[in-house]
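Hi there,

I know you've been waiting on this one. I reran it after we fixed the sequence typo, so this is the corrected version. Both the input and the resulting structure follow.
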Amino acid sequence: MNKEGNIRIAIQKSGRLSEDSIALFKECGIKLEMGKGRLKSESSNFQAEFLFLRDDDIPGYVEDGVADLGIVGENVLVESEKDVIVSKKLGFSKCRLSIAIPREDPFEGPADLDGKSIATSYPKILGQYLSENNIEAQIHEISGSVEIAPSIGLADAVCDIVSSGSTLLSNGLKEVQKIFKSEAVLIANNNLSDHKKALLDKILFRINAVQKAQDNKYILDRKS
């Protein structure tokens, strides 16, 4: 378990979510040293230590108390089913989990998925959607390159994260059903000490201030 003192924060080690998370802490005035391949960094002006991890591992690290806080996509958190607290929705790294089918295939509604095979890296979220809509479909779980599944005969459809939709288009697919909206969230361990709760409160205060300033700038820009 983490010793009393610094609050330990897990963020994704690479990618857009990592960049946005680091930018957020910098905007909050919390300095952290970055270096290529570096997996840990201690802030020079705040009681915080940062761990750079795979996004799929972050919910488990926070649940176990190895990390006190973490920033992760809602889609990853829900799929993990880990027992943590969502302290704050952060408003960035927005995306959606959608079902897509070959561009030439017709689609009139969710019922068209009945009897189909769907490839996904998110079997729990997809399974819940299918159950709620009384759809009998086979879930084919794969860990990556989901979009290629229909073209190689592995599945009739895919369920994957979509941002712009360009990846689907380049693989001959069309988005037909949005099933889950996601954004970055700040999560916390259920058993933080009073000292670390106080540090979390300070971080949340700074995040709220940054977001309020961004909202005000947006309003002023719209008026100008």
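Quick highlight: The longest strand covers residues 173-182.

Best,
R. S.
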